[in-house]
Amino acid sequence: MDKNKSSDALDEIPTFNVDNIQNNTRIINYSRTFMSIIGGVIAGILGVNGLTGIVFYFLVMAITTAGLAAKTEFSVHSYFDSWNRIVFDGILGGLMLTLLVLYGL
Fold first, then answer.
1. Quick one: which of 92, 82, 84 has its CA closest to 61?
2. DSSP per residue over 4-63, as a string?
3. 60 with 97, same domain?
4. Is 89 exposed, middle or buried (0-12, 13-18, 19+ CB in 10 A)?
5. Nearest-CA neighbor of 31 among 73, 53, 60?
6. Nearest to 16 by CA among 95, 91, 81, 62
């Protein structure tokens, strides 16, 4: 009976294909980059800048995150090892790029 318990425990260990996770992460980064460009164009057309522009950037990234989560049918663990990949990856890097472009830092 102990053998079955240990076998069940081994069946519950999640396994990930590293190539698939890297590909999915790359897709997230491309999606965030594309949405940053589109958001920047929209912000430019609307004349949004300064602190309002940064808030607009985070709003665009929140919409992007919601779209990516919806694309996975909110079953993120089937495609990534954690929610952090879909929620946080690429957001701060994109913000730094946005600040660099907006303010010439």
1. 92
2. HHHHHHHHTS----HHHHHHHHHHHHHHHHHHHHHHHHHHHHHT--HHHHHHHHHHHHHH
3. yes
4. middle
5. 60
6. 81
User: Quick one: tokens of 99?
Assistant: 């600040």
**Pairwise CA distance, residues 55 & 63, whole Å:** 12
The DSSP result for 56-85, as a single string, is HHHHHHHHHHHHHHHHTTT-GGGTSSSHHH
Q: By residue range, what is the domain housing residue 30?
A: 16-46
Residue 21 lies in a domain: yes
Is the whole-model pTM more than 0.70?
no
Task: Write the single-letter amino acid at 76.
Answer: V
Cα-Cα-Cα-Cα torsion 43, 25, 76, 68, nearest 10 degrees, comes to: 20
pLDDT tens for residues 11-48? 666 677 788 888 888 888 888 888 888 888 888 889 88
Residues 100 and 52 in one domain: yes
